[in-house]
Amino acid sequence: MKQATRPGRVVFVDWHGVLSCDPFWASIRDNARHPLHAQLVASLAPIFTGDGAHAWMKGRLSAAQVIAGMGIRLDRRFRGDFLQRRLLDDCARMKVNVPLLQMLREVRPDASIVVSTDNMDCFADTFRRVREVRRPAGPRRATFAEWAFVCDDLICSSDVAALKSEGIVRFFGPWLRRHGLTFQDALLIDDTADNCVAFREQGGTALCWRMNADDIATAAVALSRWHGALAEAELLLAAARSEDGEAPAR
């Protein structure tokens, strides 16, 4: 996905566990009285405990193929594409971490905000679809559809055919190169410690942070320090150029 981005820096922010904790098909999985609840829960268990989830996240399986493989029986109350439509609708309705998004919104004039997630085709499709819809003057609900416009771009494992754990450079490198940036220009907010360690090893800054476990103030401090440090570095560089008789960068 090609979006207009802000020069000089980027914040990569994970989705599940950081920006949201909602599962797929939440409206069915969280409602024990739904006619498809038992079938869906039973069908998803082997997918997320076996290799199916990774294959789906890496784009080797599509949502349509996963649904077909579940073998869920639909009675006359449901159209044949019900589960596909409900999956996308529930993605758009996922509850988001509004305090974190509000903080990211504050640095957005100076940095691109890019969702970077090990996720499925349905999530990437939803991100693109909701951003194409004319957005309201301001978010009124804490849903993905309302807040997607705060982010500039998306890196999804189903698009790049690789998980973050399979290579940080493989996952983030192409995006950074396309936008003329390096890991030194980037901050990663992720709930997986190994991802953060690998990101730092490439010269980036990383914060290991979990939505329902860590204080939002921790994220605020880390984001402020990173943003301030880069701004200070730019001022020092501009001063050095001025001393050398070079015009300050604009």
TrEMBL record:
Organism superkingdom: Bacteria
Protein name, UniProt field: Hydrolase of the HAD superfamily
